[in-house]
Write a structure and sequence with these properties.
The chain has 91 residues and is α/β, with parallel strands linked by helices. The protein is built from two helices and seven strands, in the order E-E-E-E-H-E-H-E-E.
Length: 91
């Protein structure tokens, strides 16, 4: 598997999109209800964050759909069009 970044993922139930931007940072676009979404940018520093990053990277348990940049951008455009951004944070 190529370790080049960025990499794109979608949770298998469609409730979140992820961009693995580097080996130490990823962004989650998380659906909230039926009308909103949050954006969380995570700097990978703790063991739980590293574990999630590695699971996303290697698709552990096949819980994510691997997306191309084009697929991700299309899904993100639909998300931004159909939902309102709320809250979110950067770590």
């Amino acid at each position: 598997m190529s370790e080049g970044y960025p990499k794109y993922r979608e949770l298998s139930n469609g409730a979140a999109l992820y961009v693995l931007e580097s080996a130490s940072c990823f962004t989650e676009y998380q659906l909230v209800g039926s009308k909103a979404y949050e954006v969380h940018t995570i700097e990978v520093k703790t063991l739980p964050e590293r574990n999630l990053f590695m699971d996303l990277l290697h698709n552990e348990g096949e819980r994510w759909h691997l997306l191309t940049a084009e697929e991700f951008n299309h899904k993100l455009a639909l998300l931004e069009k159909d939902r309102r951004r709320i809250g979110g944070h950067q770590q």
